[in-house]
Design a protein that fits this description.
Elements: E1 4-7, H1 17-33, E2 36-39, H2 53-64, H3 87-100, E3 103-106, H4 110-122, H5 138-147, E4 151-154, E5 161-166, E6 170-175, E7 183-185, H6 193-203, E8 208-212, H7 219-229, E9 235-239, E10 242-243, H8 259-264, H9 269-277, H10 292-298, E11 309-310, H11 313-326, H12 329-342, H13 350-360, H14 370-374, H15 385-392, H16 394-408, H17 415-428, H18 433-445, H19 453-470
Parallel strand pairs: 1-2, 8-9, 10-11
Antiparallel strand pairs: 3-4, 4-7, 5-6
This protein binds one RNA strand through helix 4, strand 6, helix 6, strand 11 and helix 11.
Amino acid sequence: METKVRFAPSPTGFLHVGGLRTALFNYLYARKTGGKIVLRIEDTDQARKVENAVENLLSSFEKLDIHFDEGPHKNDGSVQHFQSQRLSIYKEHIQKLIDSGDAYPCFCDGSRLETLRKKLSDAKATIKYDRKCLNLSAEEIQAKQETEPFVIRMKIPNEEKVKFYDVVREKVSINCSEIDDQVLIKSDGFPTYHFANVVDDHLMGITHVMRGEEWLPSTPKHVLLYRFFGWNLPKYIHLPLLLNPDRSKLSKRQGDVAVEDYLEKGFLPETLINFVALLGWHPKDDREMFSLKELENEFSLKRIHKSGAVFDLEKLKWMNSQYLMQLPLETVVERSIPFFENANLDTSDKAKLSLIVDATRQRVQTLAEMPEASKMYFTVPVISVDNKELINAPQSRELLQKLKENIENSNIPDGDGFKQIVMNIGKEISLSGKSLFFPIRTAIYGEPKGPDLVLLFNILGKKEVINRLNQ
RNA sequence: GGCCCGUUCGUCUAGUGGUUAGGACCCAGGGUUUUCAUCUCUGUAACAGGAGUUCGAUUCUCCUACGGGCUACCA
């Protein structure tokens, strides 16, 4: 049977890196097995809806080059991928459960439930609904339904242990006595996650449910729903959580969580994919650098871990610096342009820009650091007091003066020629090493330490080098 | 509180009933380089604890501790 997986976010903002990891694993598994991946929007909470969330989500995936086979972006009209558009389907299905006695209406209001929870909590008991509305007569239900708001709850069997198999965690079981009569349909008529999720996964033919570990405790409810309907269970794969440095669930409080944030900070899409793939999964060997295509080949469910993984910014930076150096220069140039423009640096001279990016990419860890690290190629650098002392030393003044005259009077083709002149002058006035190179680099680059003189000359050109030697 | 899940260097992780427990990031030191960066080499650093099974457990079982998740008409 063809595998079919899904990524089912609720549209409450931007794509979260945890969401990216879940989406990526689903995507990789679909590609690996030649199956399909569906994007489904779980917008059943009217209160949490965020404008443009779906557009933002799709745009992030576009940038990361992750594509869904089915979803709201390519809808032929046969299936609706927004849960808010599937209300009639849920209505039809909840009726089946009511008819079979596996679900029942409940009229208890929020304050009663709150009091109940408080009472149970004080008694140190499992917090769950007391089934006050379970045994209402047909007449009572009829009458109440006309005047009072109500929800539909699922009726959890009394004495039973629900067992299921998780690909990562193997056997998991829980006693029904611990499970609450979950609300399936809210009083506004919308389904809860648990109900819509199960109905849709079945109707859409989902074979593998891969999601975050936070869903593990509610999986027995889902298993029970499948049984009530007489449907086959999908395979469950609960992914380990992504964690903050303090090992709590990755959250906004402790740093950036949105994929967009990382992109804006100058991390490359390739880095994000590669990095996140290695959180909770590991290949057979020690290899760490993987393109998306390579991951598609390499991925396997068997190598997913059980325990949570801390999102380590240091390693992310390292990996980004690797991609900065490994990716084709044109790609890095193209991706860096917005960052230069943002810093008001002129990007019109593409040949020069290319040289600059090439010289800078191995000195920075993110695209965002690039303008700062290369602004001296655009404008005459500001030289610090200490460095001024260095170039104003008599020895340095003589050196720089000679150098200027030499360049002005010769036809230097490129940086190699420039360096040759530097070496010759060095010989002439008996300067070498730091005392030769530091003043020159400081004069034209602003700092004694930095890129090779050949590179500097090639980027700046003869005219600008003379200009800077003058100052 | 209850339930569920987890636990190998600080972090990401490999691994096995017998290994000097391997790699990567970070950190430290060396080399390369005119310098910085890159690159490269070396080093520091881990099987949570206790029982049991076994000739032998980091590896299997149980218990404890610790950590996390869930405990909504949120997902």
